[in-house]
Amino acid sequence: MLKIVSDSTCDLSRELLDRYDIGILPLNIVLGEESFQDGKDIGPDEIYAWSDEHNTTPKTSACSVEQAASFFKTYIDNGDEVICFAISESMSSSINSMRLAAKSLKAEDRITIIDSANLSTGVGLQVIEAAVMAQEGKTAAEVTSRIEELKPLVRASFVVDTLTYLHRGGRCSGMAALLGGALKLHPRIVVSGGKMSPDKKYRGKMNRIILHYAEDMEADLLKAKTDRVFITHSGCDEEVIQSVRTYLEGLARFDEILVTRAGGVISSHCGPGTLGVLFIAGE
Q1: How confident is the model at residue 205 (pLDDT cuts 50, 70, 90)?
Q2: Backbone angles phi, psi at 279, to 5 degrees
Q3: Alpha carbons 88 and 257: distance in angstroms, whole number
Q4: Rg (CA), the chain
Q5: Which residue of 59, 154, 220, 270 is most buried, as measured by CB atoms within 10 A?
Q6: Do 163 and 175 form a contact (C-beta atoms < 8 A)?
């Protein structure tokens, strides 16, 4: 059996994980001297509460080789083949831990590691595509080949409510330049080539900005792959989320509009109030 798995940064809901039979390898959240497994031991709200209490942002760490090996071993012992997705290699060393884990199990021929070159549901979109193909009986080679074709077409972006988390995390180039004019500044962060960078800058209240952000992508959304689009957020008001959903419904383009909340690792770096619309461009 071909099993599709991912690290926890794919930000897929439990309903989607169950629907597509996707396994999750947690990354780690580090709060002071304590380490927790993302989505297993701790969630975003607990992370924000700790951050507010200690007036600092949390840290994250890659899965260890031992964690990855233990995770893979269950599938290998079951006789499965595995395709595992990882957050962009430029953002985390988790993919290297996965590779070393496969080697330690002498299972490199049965475990395929894919660098998603993305984050959050930019990874999740690829994971679901792979899972659908696995359910259709495609081989690991066929799935991997198709994913490599789709990777450059994934459109991942988001607007942040606060620059603090991204700046402290140090994973978004150009953040220092933005901070000088940060008063009511909400940049659109775009993932390209496996890296994050600020794009268009919005000013004003987030409830208006978020809808403008979605509308700015309309030309691309109207040509997007029709299967699904994600609204992924790190704890936004329901009214804001619903306004984006209503807008996307009005485009009459997508079979599914999926709303999911970012997990602990992504939330630790983007902070509360972040929202993104993520999709695959048309071919």
Answers
A1: confident
A2: -160, 175
A3: 24
A4: 18
A5: 270
A6: yes
